[in-house]
Design brief:
Blueprint lengths: L5 H18 L6 H7 L3 H9 L3 H9 L2 H7 L2 H28 L1 H20 L9 H17 L11 H16 L5 H8 L2 H9 L3 H28 L1 H19 L3 E9 L5 E7 L10 H30 L2
Helix pairs in contact: 1-2, 1-6, 3-12, 4-5, 6-7, 7-13, 7-14, 8-13, 9-10, 9-12, 12-13
Length: 314
């Protein structure tokens, strides 16, 4: 790996902040941000390289050599960015979701929609064939179906939270599928939030164990696919992004009340509607937010070009 300079580390922290902000919103994946900013494959490789070998290296070679050999500076800086973003933006995003949902969803709709061509440009035209197009359509159909499912009844058993954590972190790694949305879909979101608020050590530990297990196992498999079938993987993930736009459509209508979260929020089964249904007076501002989201992702894509060039110099 090429030596990173101070500016490179700061930009990596900014990428982490962008990932953290994305993961706060059900429907947006931090994996999308990681991909368009050029650190996705390094993230998969670094996480996939962790395991028992890391522990053995710690005792045989020492902590400093292990830290360097396993690229832990990368994970630490990225993690700091994510944690910082969550700490700084969680309150603001929660407020916007409650008070200005249409504007916030418009912003993220533009961001994700503009991410699709940025991902597809990584695939050469000669690599696009019938099989890759089938994968693209499969990813789009699967994500479209998943984001239309109603949340399940809530559960808080430790085994259930372990499995929910493993599935949610897998989704968080995949561009186009939100880990927080998967928790809502599984009916575990309220239980996880409640366990954290109440400092329920057993349930927090079960969820964390699931996250770690899913992260280590899934990243290895996905990294293997990227190394051997990169174009096919990008086509599938691009399809996921297209399908996820169903969840991000700004104008929705509450159809059926499903259940109430521990923090008092009511979960509804929603349907997408045209902005003309409710004659949205903010449609001009909503379009501006979507354009701003698209421009932001283009800027992030340019930031990603510098990240990929650093990896390629290794």
């Amino acid at each position: 790996m090429a030596q990173r300079q101070m500016g490179d580390w700061l930009r990596l922290g900014l990428r982490g902040m962008a990932m953290g902000a994305a993961d706060l919103v059900p429907g947006v994946s931090g994996g999308t941000i990681a991909f368009i900013t050029g650190i996705y494959e390094e993230l998969l490789t670094t996480i996939g390289g962790l395991g028992m070998g890391t522990v053995r290296s710690f005792f045989s070679k020492g902590p400093w050599v292990t830290w360097k050999d396993y690229n832990l500076n990368f994970l630490t800086m990225l993690g700091l960015g994510i944690v910082t973003s969550v700490a700084l933006l969680a309150g603001m995003l929660h407020h916007l979701l409650e008070e200005e949902p249409v504007l916030l969803w418009s912003f993220f709709f533009g961001l994700v929609a503009a991410s699709v061509p940025l991902m597809l440009r990584e695939v050469e035209r000669t690599q696009i064939d019938a099989a890759s197009l089938v994968l693209f359509l499969t990813g789009a159909t699967l994500a479209w179906w998943l984001t239309g499912l109603p949340p399940l009844v809530q559960g808080d058993a430790p085994v259930f939270l372990f499995l929910s954590g493993a599935l949610a972190i897998c989704a968080m790694i995949l561009p186009g599928i939100s880990g927080s949305f998967v928790l809502v879909l599984l009916g575990a979101y309220s239980a996880v939030i409640g366990a954290i608020k109440g400092f329920d050590v057993i349930r927090i530990a079960a969820f964390a164990a699931g996250v770690i297990s899913g992260l280590l196992g899934f990243s290895k498999g996905l990294g293997w696919i990227f190394r051997r079938h990169r174009a096919m993987a990008i086509m599938l993930l691009s399809g996921f992004l297209v399908g996820s736009l169903r969840k991000l459509w700004p104008w929705k209508e509450n159809a059926v009340e499903l259940f109430t979260h521990s923090d008092g929020r009511i979960e509804y089964l929603q349907f997408n509607v045209s902005p003309s249904v409710h004659v949205d007076p903010q449609i001009g501002l909503s379009l501006a937010c979507a354009v701003f989201g698209a421009l932001l992702v283009i800027a992030l894509g340019r930031l990603g070009s510098s990240g990929k060039s650093l990896v390629q110099r290794a």
